[in-house]
Amino acid sequence: MIIDDCHYDIIVIGSGAGGGTLAAALSRQGKSVLLLERGGAMAIEDQNVADADLFRKDRYHPRDERWFGPDGDPIAPQTTYALGGNTKIWGAVLQRMREKDFSELAAQEGVSPAWPFDYGELAPYYTAAESLFRVHGKAGVDPTEPNRSNGFEHHPKALEPFLEPLRAGLQRQGCKPYDLPLSWSEDPIDPSGDAQLFGLDKGDASNLVIRDQAKVLRLHVNPSGHEVKGVEAEVAGEAWLFSSDVVVLAAGAINTPAILLRSSSDQHPSGLANGSDQVGRNLMNLQLTSILQLATQLSSGRYARSLGINDYYWGDKNVSFSLGHIQSAGGVLQDTLFAESPPVLSLISKLMPNFGLEQLAARSVAWWAMTEVLPEPDNKVILQNNQIHINYLHNNREAHDRLVYRWLDTIKSVEADPLTKVVRSAPIYPRGEAPISIVGFACGTCRMGDQQSSSVVDPNGKCHELDNLYIADTSVFPSCPSIGPGLTTIALALRMANTLDKAM
Ligand SMILES: Cc1cc2nc3c(=O)[nH]c(=O)nc-3n(C[C@H](O)[C@H](O)[C@H](O)COP(=O)(O)OP(=O)(O)OC[C@H]3O[C@@H](n4cnc5c(N)ncnc54)[C@H](O)[C@@H]3O)c2cc1C
């Protein structure tokens, strides 16, 4: 094994929303930081895909990686190993969790647990995160919007023209559509924000060493078992050992528990930080259904996600538990998630055999229905023969179905309104649930909490059982909000930078 001769203040593992943001923030504070990232730089043409090719290639599934699903069959996960992690292909919609999302809430099929702190604790970091990631949005329109001390620094992007009359049509049905807050760079070549652009690139280069193509295999502890002493990584086919005072795992909700489980030793026989048998458990992966509506007006088919609707976020006229969030998916040729909904595509090709993807994109509106799932100990990431297995079944399904049917009713009433001319009714609304290989919204596998017996990290992200090991990715989420986890992950990373600054 090659032993690196530098010793750092902090090693951060993974450069996505959590790790990329944290490593840069720590370097700005003057800490010496080593960032280890298993991927490399992603080519610009792969980041801003806007062509039918998106549907034809397994473009965002690492070629050599197979995980195993609940039935034991191999799956090719949609996950991005690159500088910036999954933020290189995300929709860049950055929303705050609502105040109530932080407290215990009754759901249709159980309870969504409380976080160990309230919204007020994270609010200043949300503000800083929106500023850092240049979030464009408009406050005061979404009825569920949490309290904020300020408006957005940047106005929303202009909508694709046909979406303005659609917004008005939704308003006539009593909905309150709002401009989705988007991370946006104003750079025409690389317009959508990500954790490389607004994370790593904002670091202090004199303090931040970035080693890409460095896949972390396991962590080594000192003889007492209370401190991580070395980080073992595979670099160009060779084993390397790196060292620092503090180590932060930010490899994402699947790979972070996998690294901890792989780091078992005499002192930690069931995996590092896993004395309570919580590592890998409580996996939550947002329920996502894509719904396609036909448009009468041509559009470019290439535009960002646009409108959000939270009118059913806390329920509807019949039920008082959370149903979830609706967002317009963006142009069909630009939505990496939509391209992963094979049921939608096969249905369309049967219904309209001569309808190519370009025509479909130009004449449709795609929507996403998004509903939270609840933590369950048996939904988990495990290692078998050193390979990742995902034991996972969605729960809270009836709430999600309600949301989908509620939304279908809403779009049908929009179509029935003679004043709304931009969409038209169809005999069928093709829709498809995201398959298990879509893991980009996964969270919860190393959850935070006050009690060591039921959580992996404390409210500051420090592993209960280790003095110098922290986690800064979506693994730590105690619950899974119906909106995306991106902004909360960035805010938590900025909060951790502050905590570490005071502690070191
Ligand atoms: C197609 C898509 C669209 C999305 N759209 C949105 C959206 O619009 N809004 C939103 O809020 N969220 C969205 N998400 C989710 C969002 O991208 C994730 O929640 C977020 O990136 C999670 O951040 P993270 O830091 O936990 O992990 P990641 O961003 O996944 O980063 C993990 C990093 O760790 C690296 N890594 C993994 N294993 C190792 C290892 N062994 N050694 C070294 N490095 C390692 C990875 O390469 C990666 O860089 C989307 C996700 C996808 C896939």
Helix content: 10-25%
Please tally the β strands and state the result. 24
Shape: globular
Strand content: 15-25%
- Termini Cα gap: 29 Å
The radius of gyration over CA amounts to 22 Å
Quaternary assembly: single chain
Provide mean pLDDT, rounded.
92
Q: How many domain regions?
A: 2
Describe the structure.
This protein has 504 residues and is an alpha+beta fold. It folds into two domains: 192 residues, FAD/NAD(P)-binding domain; 219 residues. 22% of the residues lie in helices and 22% in strands. The protein contains ten helices and 24 strands. The strands form seven sheets. Strands 1, 2, 10, 11, 12, 13 and 24 form a seven-stranded mixed β-sheet that branches. Strands 8, 15, 16, 17, 18, 21 and 22 form a seven-stranded antiparallel β-sheet that branches. Strands 3-4 form a two-stranded antiparallel sheet. A hairpin with a 2-residue loop joins strand 19 and strand 20. Helix 1 runs parallel beside helix 10 and helix 5 crosses helix 9. The protein is globular, with a radius of gyration of 22 Å. The two termini are 29 Å apart. The model has no long low-confidence stretch (mean pLDDT 92). The site of flavin-adenine dinucleotide has 40 residues, from helix 1, strand 11, helix 6 and helix 10.
